[in-house]
Design a protein that fits this description.
Number of strands: 4
Shape: elongated
Largest sheet: 2 strands, antiparallel
Helix content: 55-70%
Structural class: mainly alpha
Number of helices: 11
Distance between the termini: 92 Å
Length: 323
């Protein structure tokens, strides 16, 4: 689909740029992930010459359930959210993204916000695909849902609206109507479907259900769902390495021989060695006589035959004794 031409196109894109710069200028902290999403969507729509090698044209990435399932086309599944059908479509979605993204990223932090957007994108697209396939299987209803072509970031924006208003007990305006904030996404779904032709009902519904599912998963795990999934996956992958490392650590901790001279045994919960007060040799806890000098355990008097000898000489005689 070609982009709208003329002054209207240039004026709307310029309006979006001015509004975004003005919003970021007045913020003490500039949310980087929201800015990155704005730039990514805008550049994908404009497709400048230096990006055309990496960014496919829109006819190759339309979200179409039939083509995605038939060809297992992940390109359409993920990239279609970053494409828009026209200037009005792009500007409306980016204005909404700017407002919601600044609030969510400022309250959540950039890392959790980026993880949330990735989770909402995957879940909204997946739920939309599941709904369209279910209508075909159970009701034999393939048009327009199973065969429709759709693009845009709207599904993620509806999911973000659900997350943003989940803790609000107040009211908000939805296209001139005052509705409870928690139900704003449902009201907008109905109003847009009634008054805006050509929008994807399942795409928007999938976004709302993705937001609800995200909140349910977050409530159960107590952390960001995608982060929990990644941590669990990392734990499974690193389990063999941790098992081998712990095995070698246990081997290194074993005591070889029956003692060491001058060793530090501080910090052991159960002492397994005792130190001779005369020659400082560490003996086995099972021995009652020092293996170096032959003195009884607990005595500090050096036997006459070892009186005046150095530790090296004691060690040499011990070797001869047990050799």
């Amino acid at each position: 689909m070609e982009r709208n031409g003329g002054r209207l196109s240039k004026g709307m894109l310029a309006l979006l740029a001015v509004h975004a710069v003005n919003e970021y200028y007045r913020l003490p902290w500039k949310p980087p992930v929201t800015a990155g999403l704005l730039v990514a969507n805008t550049l994908t729509y404009l497709r400048p010459a230096f990006l055309r090698r990496f960014v496919p044209p829109i006819h190759e990435v339309w979200f179409n359930p039939y083509l995605i399932l038939k060809h297992r086309d992940l390109k359409r599944f993920f990239l279609s959210a970053f494409y828009h059908a026209g200037d009005t479509h792009l500007v409306y979605n980016m204005m909404s993204l700017l407002w919601k993204g600044i609030q969510l990223e400022t309250s959540m932090g950039s890392t959790e916000f980026a993880s949330m957007v990735a989770a909402l994108l995957t879940m909204s697209q997946g739920i939309t695909l599941l709904l369209s396939k279910s209508l075909l299987l159970f009701f034999d209803y393939d048009k327009p849902f199973y065969s429709e072509y759709a693009v845009g970031f709207s599904g993620v924006l509806f999911a973000m609206k659900v997350v943003l208003n989940s803790q609000s007990d107040g009211y908000t305006f939805v296209h001139g109507l005052v509705v409870p904030a928690r139900h704003a996404a449902w009201a907008e779904l109905i109003l847009i479907q009634m008054f805006v032709p050509g929008v994807s009902f399942l795409g928007h519904l999938g976004g709302i259900l993705a937001g609800i599912l995200y909140l349910k998963l977050k409530g159960r795990s107590g952390s960001e769902p995608l982060t929990s999934i990644i941590k669990s996956f990392s734990t499974v992958l690193t389990w063999p390495l941790r098992s081998v490392r712990s095995l070698f650590q246990r081997r290194r901790q074993r005591i070889s021989g029956r003692g060491t001279v001058g060793g530090n045994r501080a910090g052991r919960s159960v002492p397994v060695l005792w130190r001779c007060q005369a020659c400082t040799y560490d003996n086995s806890g099972l021995s009652s006589v020092c293996e170096m000098c032959g003195i009884d355990r607990g005595s500090s008097q050096v036997p006459r035959q070892f009186d005046g000898l150095t530790l090296e000489e004691m060690r040499r005689r011990r070797i001869e004794r047990f050799g």
